[in-house]
Amino acid sequence: MLTQVEITHTVNASRELVFKVFSESEHLKNWWGPKGWRFTVSHSDFRPGGRFHYSQKPADGDVMWVKFVYHEIIVPEKIVYTSYFSDKDGNIVRAPFNENWPLETLNTLTFKEDGGKTTITAIVAPGASATENERKTFEESQDMVHEGFSVTFNQLEDYLSNGLK
Question: Which domains does the chain have, with CATH numbers?
Answer without folding.
Answer: 5-161 (3.30.530.20)
